[in-house]
Write a structure and sequence with these properties.
The structure is a single chain. By secondary structure, this protein is of the alpha+beta class. About 50% of the residues lie in helices and about 10% in strands. It is built from 17 helices and 11 strands. It has a 4-stranded mixed beta sheet with strand order 5-4-3-6. Strands 9-10-11 form a 3-stranded antiparallel beta sheet, with no helix packed on it. Helix 7 (about 145-160) packs antiparallel against helix 8 (about 160-175). It starts with a helix and ends in an 11-residue tail after the last helix.
């Protein structure tokens, strides 16, 4: 075969566009403008994040100052509780998780000690992702190595994307750490853990934190099992599917490699679904909706599952009044299913690992009843009792929280929020369907929103509404909520 024949049989490639074509020139110029504005937007976002970190660091400083002023004889303990309260305050004000605020505050206090990195962020030379990864590594190093670490990795942050930068920064961290890797690895193993996170469509993720060699060995085993199964003549599953199925089989003991173990779950199934005459989804406690077949399959395993029908039994225990402080098992189970999570604003910890707290304390006359009980994780249980956070509960189990700065927010059992969200979604779908139909003269338009028909405002109060907030603290919190405006020519 000649060279000419080989070239003519290759798949043809796109020819370069004619640079002189006016249409091509116009599109390329538009792309340049868009890319330039994207870059401006990235720099503006980085500058705003730098300002946010400064404000968070200052807010944390005010929390420490307040602890020293209020409890000069117990500064360390008071500082811890004021930090928890401050974290909750900012999380509720910004409508983010406390874990996020804690991480941001950690970044803020570290990065404000590194003006070179903070200035690089303010200029937009690096992104918030770079800063977070840098700080994550930096906080595991002794303070005396920070300057060297910053000087070593900051130029990499300017050049590399966050993922690649993280890989090199991790290696540099290992080189600069003065302690033996053997000792550090032994200590790190004490933190090993496994946890789950929910996803959509009846799925979830399983996370495992363990030794790198164990993880790699597990990965290799899954890979070899999946490859071996994929070689079977009738196998139609993909390699990722085979890896997942192999892991499930090994962990649940359905493979010959291990023995089985019973697991207790709680699934709520409509009676009609359980009878097979309807296809309404079930509700897996701690996760959410599951398909009817899965719900029936779970409910059928009576020894391993607690069956709960959507039609409550007439003998269900709702209250024991003032007769007992301790919760009966039936009431505890009901509240766990209803609450699902800690009832503090923004907290996502599971009710199964939380305390059933008396909203009005037992010693203050509170009853052991469903409308005076709510699950609080241990962290927020302590915040409620050890700081100035206040909470009241309505008969429908709505909790109204008031922060130390005077802001209020409400939390409700998830099933109520889900029901309301479903109604809103149906209303939107109904309006969309109506818009596709020809309008009729006699159809009345919905009345405009007024104070009479608008839903009640449930957001947090403005900073000025807080009665106990100092002028400095109120100003800092307001600036965190509303960062400095962008220049007049905004990038987007």
């Amino acid at each position: 075969m000649t060279e000419e024949t080989r070239t003519t049989t290759r798949t043809p490639r796109f020819e370069p566009a004619r640079a002189s074509d006016p249409a091509v020139v116009a599109v390329e110029e538009r792309q340049r403008v868009l890319l330039s504005r994207l870059e401006e937007g990235r720099r503006a976002e980085a500058a705003l994040h730098a300002e946010r970190l400064r404000l968070l660091a200052e807010f944390a400083e005010t929390a420490d100052e307040l602890a020293a002023l209020l409890h000069p004889d117990r500064v360390t303990e008071a500082r811890d509780m004021q930090r928890r309260s401050m974290t909750a305050e900012v999380a509720v004000a910004l409508n983010v998780s406390e874990r996020f605020v804690t991480a941001e505050t950690c970044d803020a206090e570290t990065i404000t000690a590194l003006p070179t990195t903070l200035n690089a962020l303010a200029r937009g030379d690096i992104s918030r992702q770079h800063v977070h990864k840098l700080v994550t590594h930096l906080n595991t190093l002794p303070a005396e190595t920070w300057e060297a670490f910053e000087a070593a990795v900051l130029p990499l942050a300017v050049q590399l994307n966050p993922a690649r930068f993280d890989n090199l920064a991790r290696r540099m961290r290992e080189r600069l750490h003065p302690d033996s890797l053997t000792i550090r690895a032994r200590q790190a193993r004490e933190e090993r853990s496994a946890w789950i996170s929910e996803d959509r469509d009846g799925m979830a993720h399983l996370h495992l934190y363990a030794g790198a060699e164990d993880i790699l060995a597990i990965d290799a085993r899954l890979h070899h099992h999946a490859r071996a199964l994929s070689a079977e003549p009738d196998e139609t599953r993909t390699i990722p599917q085979l890896r997942a199925d192999t892991a499930v089989d090994l962990l649940l003991g359905t493979s010959a490699a291990t023995g089985g173990a019973a697991v207790e779950l709680v699934v709520t199934v409509p009676a009609t679904t359980l009878a097979g005459v309807a296809e309404e989804p079930g509700e897996l406690s701690g996760y959410g909706p599951v398909d009817p077949d899965t719900a029936r399959r779970l409910a059928a395993a009576a020894p391993a599952f607690t069956r709960i029908l959507t039609r409550p039994d007439t003998g269900e225990v709702v209250s024991v009044g003032r007769a007992s402080y301790r919760l009966p098992a039936a009431l505890r189970r009901r509240l766990r299913i209803e609450d699902e999570r800690c009832r503090f604003p923004g907290c996502n910890r599971r009710a199964i690992a939380a305390d059933a707290d008396h909203t009005t304390a037992w010693q203050d006359g509170g009853s052991t009843s469903s409308d005076n009980l709510a699950h609080l994780c241990r962290r927020h249980h302590r915040v409620k009792h050890a700081t100035d956070w206040d909470v009241t509960q309505d008969p429908d189990r709505t909790l109204t929280w008031t922060s130390p700065l005077g802001r209020t927010t409400t939390t409700r059992p998830p099933h109520r929020d889900l029901a309301d969200a479903t109604l809103r979604a149906r209303a939107i779908l109904s309006r969309a369907q109506d818009s596709d139909r020809p309008t009729t003269p006699d159809r009345e338009s919905p009345p405009p929103p007024t104070s009479e028909n608008s839903p009640p405002r449930t957001g947090t109060l403005d900073p000025d509404d807080g009665p106990a907030l100092t002028a400095r603290g109120r100003g800092v919190l307001a600036r965190i909520r509303t960062p400095r405006p962008l220049p007049e020519r905004t990038p987007f």
